[in-house]
Each structure stands twice: as structure tokens, then as C-alpha cells.
DNA sequence: CGATCTATATATAACTG
DNA sequence: TCAGTTATATATAGATC
């Protein structure tokens, strides 16, 4: 917000960094106070400058809010590990939030054309995951039929390509071209990104195209 | 900041207040995260909604900052543990990584939008939404073989489920159980965001009833 | 530095589907 | 209710003093 956009990454020049720190810290506190007043919320903020100096904002006061928070997240004040666990939980929440943002941001760049291409795929906003990983136990006949049709289309597509492949393989130099290699790589890269979101949850891991398997 | 200026005083209508609370809370957290990244600061924020629900933001994590703060102000409340330190650190690393990705993605999105504005709005990034939409021209035989195997497995899986479906439909009461109802809803792709992220990829594909097979 | 001054980038109030 | 859009109010980057 200013004359020019600055990238959100560490400001290298310490003089600018210090100025920005002061300005933004006061901006943050102002926002916090507005949130308190407008919504009747209670907010505590603690900031440590890179130099280690502490600043804080609290409404009604930092300590009461911190106490309340710690009591909620650490029912027994003596079990430290649970405090750590809850800290992790918090982190996880943040992480998930950011992941969602990331996904949303990625979607934003995609064309509506692509949206429409996936007939029903309205689910653009959700985590990319492969539909065949979803349990099929509860599906109705209609849905199964749909899946079937899709698979058949897909099969034909692949078969056709397979055919082309076999033909072409007699002239080896045409086997892979640069463009497609790049495409494949970037696709695998996509999985890599969404993957980091999913692994943390543990159970469902998207599969890279060449690792496909069902068990 | 909006269509109209609102006075900084408690919002009376609870519906508006709730909306404002959500928006401003996320805005506050975003500002905080920018402050951390730009300036290398450490920030913890704790927010209690009027209803008493707790939200928090922390970089690197709420607990460590709160501890550090309390130590400076009240030596008796010293709580230290490194029990889960490494786990937290790991998470933090993930988090930071994703944050960077998010920022990068935002930049990318903006670039894309600019491109769109100036030129052909076509398929800017070549990444197909689903892997089967990716051009297969460049794939090697081995990869095609893998895909084929995958599809075959998938076909069998679907066929098996289809069978189950047909059998089960004769005893209607067993056709759906509570768990599956929810699953189907999200699978069909109503804009319901499923709680368990597991079905989020559900897209509905077109269908046809013959046998899928590969030869 | 720190306060002040713009031009811009962001956040968000109100609106919309 | 809930996400997305738009018009506007704020925050703030860079400049100047």
C-alpha cells in the first residue's frame, strides 16, 4: 500500500525494514483496536522486533486474554506437552488456512474455460484430489454410470495415443519433444504442491500420473 | 474502507457484526503475517469473539511468544518445554514454505491477469485440470502402459462397486446409511464443502453403460 | 530519525447470486 | 448463509523536510 508495491519477503535494507516495522506495527494495533470496538472482541497482540524488543496491545489487557487463552488450550497448567500439542494444533490451523488461500489463489489464475470443460467439476474450490480416490460405496447407479462413461472416453483416448506411440516409436527422435516434457514436469510439480497440504492430514495422498495404483 | 465509512463504535446489528468480525479478523492476521515476513518480527495474536470463541495467530507460534512475553513481565509463570519442539519447527517450516508459495502464486495470478487483459484470454498456463486432459503425445510407452494399468484397475473397481450397488438396491433400506448420504451429497458436487476434505474432489463425470476393457 | 505529504495498493462495507 | 464483486475508505511506500 503505497507508491509502489513491495513483495512480501524480508526487507533487506535494515533502515527501510525498521521504518516499515514501525508503521505497520502501529497499523496493526490500530486495526486490532477497531476490531475490538466494532465487534466487542477481545484482542491481545504481542510483537517482538527483530532486535528483540517487545511491543504489545491488549483490550481489555494482554494478561487477561493470554490467561484465558492458555487455560482453554492447556486445561492442566502442569502438563506442558499438551500446551505444545495445542500450539501445534494452532499452527496446523494456520497452515491449513494458508493452504486454502494458496489453493484459492491458484484457482484464480485458471480460466473459466477449464472450469466448464470439467462437466460437473464445480468443485474447483476444494482441494485438488483425485476423484477416483473417493469411496464409491455410497454412490448411486447414476453416478457409477457416469464414471463408467468417462472411463471409456478416457480409455479410447489412451488407446489412440498408445497406437500413435507404437507407430512413432519407429522414429525414435520424435518420441518426446521438449514441450511435452515440460508439461509433464509441471504437472508433476502441481501434485507436489497440493501434496504438501494433504500429507499433513495423513490419509489421502494424491498420486502422480506415473505412480498410479490402487490397493 | 468500503462503500461507506462506518463509525468506529460497536456495530449494533449482530449479523453485520459477525461478518465484519470475520473479515477484519482475517485481515488482521494477514497484516500480522506480512509484518513477520517483511521485518522478521515475531507476532502472536489472540482474539476472542464476543461469543467467546478463540482465534489465534502466531509466528513462529503463539506459545513461544507468549512465554517469552510473560517471562519478561512475570517470572513466576515461566513455562518451558522442548518436548515437541522439533515437530513444531517442522510444521513451521512447512507453513513458511506454503506462505511463500502463496505469495508467489499471487504474483503469478496478477501476471496472468495482466496477460489476459492485454491478449488472448486462452489457456494461459498449460496445466490441465485433470491429468487425463494433458496431451499424451509425448508420453513414452512405459508411461502409457502405466496409465493403461491404472485405468484397468479403476475399471474393475468401478465394476465391482456397480455390482454391489445392483445387489444392494434390492434391499432398499440398506441402500444408504447416514454416513453415505453425506458423502453422496458432496460427491454430487452441491456446493456443500465437506467437513472431511476427503470427498472434496468429487466431480461427476459423464457416463455410459458398456463394458470397459483394454485390449 | 520522525513527522508530514502524496500516490497507490489494500482492505473492506455494501451488494449480489 | 456464504463466496464473490464493486466502490470506496484506509494503510502505507517513497519522498521531502
UniProtKB/TrEMBL annotation, chains A, B:
SMART domains from the UniProt entry: MADS
Claim: Mitochondrion is one of the keywords in the record: no
Gene Ontology MF annotations: DNA-binding transcription factor activity, RNA polymerase II-specific; protein dimerization activity; RNA polymerase II cis-regulatory region sequence-specific DNA binding
Chief place of localization: nucleus
The MADS-box domain, residue ranges: 1-61
Annotated compartments: Nucleus
SUPFAM superfamilies for the chain: SRF-like (SSF55455)
UniProt record, GO biological process: positive regulation of transcription by RNA polymerase II
Gene3D superfamilies linked: Transcription factor, MADS-box
Keyword terms, alphabetized: DNA-binding, Nucleus, Transcription, Transcription regulation
One GO CC annotation: nucleus
PANTHER family linked to this entry: MADS BOX PROTEIN, OS02G0164450 PROTEIN
Entry protein name: MADS-box domain-containing protein
Amino acid at each position: 500500500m503505497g507508491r509502489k508495491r513491495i513483495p512480501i519477503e524480508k526487507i533487506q535494507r535494515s533502515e527501510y525494514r525498521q521504518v516499515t516495522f514501525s508503521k505497520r506495527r502501529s497499523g496493526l494495533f490500530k486495526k486490532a483496536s477497531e476490531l475490538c470496538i466494532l465487534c466487542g472482541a477481545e484482542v491481545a497482540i504481542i510483537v517482538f522486533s527483530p532486535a528483540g524488543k517487545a511491543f504489545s496491545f491488549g483490550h481489555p489487557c494482554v494478561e487477561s486474554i493470554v490467561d484465558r487463552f492458555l487455560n482453554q488450550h492447556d486445561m492442566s497448567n502442569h502438563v506442558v506437552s499438551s500446551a505444545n500439542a495445542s500450539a501445534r494444533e494452532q499452527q496446523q490451523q494456520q497452515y491449513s488456512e494458508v493452504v486454502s488461500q494458496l489453493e484459492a489463489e491458484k484457482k484464480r489464475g485458471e480460466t473459466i474455460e477449464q472450469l466448464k470443460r470439467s462437466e460437473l467439476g464445480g468443485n474447483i474450490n476444494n482441494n485438488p484430489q483425485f476423484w477416483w480416490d473417493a469411496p464409491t460405496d455410497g454412490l448411486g447407479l447414476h453416478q457409477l454410470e457416469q464414471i463408467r462413461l468417462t472411463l471409456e472416453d478416457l480409455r479410447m483416448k489412451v488407446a489412440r495415443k498408445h497406437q500413435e506411440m507404437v507407430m512413432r516409436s519407429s522414429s525414435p527422435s520424435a518420441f518426446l519433444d521438449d514441450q511435452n516434457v515440460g508439461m509433464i514436469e509441471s504437472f508433476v510439480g502441481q501434485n507436489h504442491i497440493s501434496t504438501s497440504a494433504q500429507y499433513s492430514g495423513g490419509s489421502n495422498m494424491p498420486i502422480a500420473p506415473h505412480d498410479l495404483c490402487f490397493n
